[in-house]
Design a protein that fits this description.
Blueprint (H helix, E strand, L loop, with lengths): L4 H21 L12 H21 L4 H35 L8 E10 L13 H4 L3 H11 L8 E8 L10 H5 L27 H9 L4 H6 L3 E10 L11 H5 L1
Antiparallel strand pairs: 1-2, 1-3
Helix pairs in contact: 1-2
Length: 253
């Protein structure tokens, strides 16, 4: 791939920003866990945002890159649908079986989809890595670690189903979710995803979240290789020192 002057200038700026990040964090992105100075953390996040902006400006949207984006977008859409369906099934199970009056003060059924960085296999290498020059493995790991702190939400798509007395196990998924707007045909092409090369793609909410709500660039998304979809039921038993329970269900009847 031919490198023009403008691209080379952006590439030099990108490398300088990433080098500055590494000077602060160190050679291992997991060192971020040992940094507690808020000003330093804010500076790192500022540099990460700058890196993301530079990479999005460098993104050439070749035919191969657009094809890979379509593939990742389709995968995320399918995972969101599977997560949503499994969450609804879990909710129906609770509705059919009823609550445990002796224990349950409240419950929540929640499905989540998120990107997880575990190791180097969580990022794939592409033929044009050198063209962009980013240390994708280090930087995506660092962004992941930062976006899994209490200051951020690491999930990229989710469904939450709290207890509601009018819900029935005979309801279909859409009724249970009460018209959640995430992926009902809406094209979430906003911010850096709003480009002519993506006009034919209905961009799903998860891809939108990764590239607009979190400091991942489009190029980072194309290399992500470890997505987790989960559905879980949380039953809560809440009492004070006198043994008085928080009777959430009683209050809602």
């Amino acid at each position: 791939m031919e490198i023009d002057r403008q691209h080379e200038q952006m590439r030099k700026r990108l490398l300088a920003v990433e080098e500055q990040i590494k000077e602060i964090v160190g050679g291992d992105p997991w060192n971020i866990d040992c940094i507690h100075d808020q000003e330093v953390l804010d500076k790192i996040e500022e540099l990460i945002e700058t890196r993301c902006s530079i990479l999005n400006s460098m993104f050439t949207a070749t035919a191969q890159e657009v094809e890979r984006f379509e593939k990742v977008n389709k995968l995320l859409l399918e995972l969101t649908a599977q997560m949503r369906h499994r969450t609804a099934a879990l909710y129906r199970m609770v509705l059919r079986n009823g609550i445990d009056e002796a224990f349950d003060d409240d419950y929540m059924v929640e499905g989540t989809l998120k990107y997880v960085y575990n190791d180097e296999d969580s990022i794939i290498s592409l033929d044009n890595d050198e063209y962009y020059g980013s240390d994708f493995n280090y930087m995506v790991a660092l962004v992941y670690l930062i976006t899994t702190t209490p200051r951020h939400l690491d999930r990229v798509a989710w469904e939450t189903l709290p207890h509601r007395s009018y819900k029935s196990p005979d309801m279909d998924d859409d009724t249970l979710f009460e018209d959640r707007p995430m992926d009902n045909g809406t094209n979430w092409a906003e911010g850096p995803l709003w480009i002519p090369q993506f006009e034919h793609i209905c961009i799903c909410y998860a891809a939108h979240d990764i590239c607009t709500h979190k400091p991942y660039s489009i190029l980072d998304l194309l290399r992500m290789n470890d997505f987790w979809a989960e559905a879980e039921l949380t039953c809560q038993h809440i009492v004070n020192q006198q043994g008085v329970r928080w009777q959430a269900f009683t209050a809602r009847r």
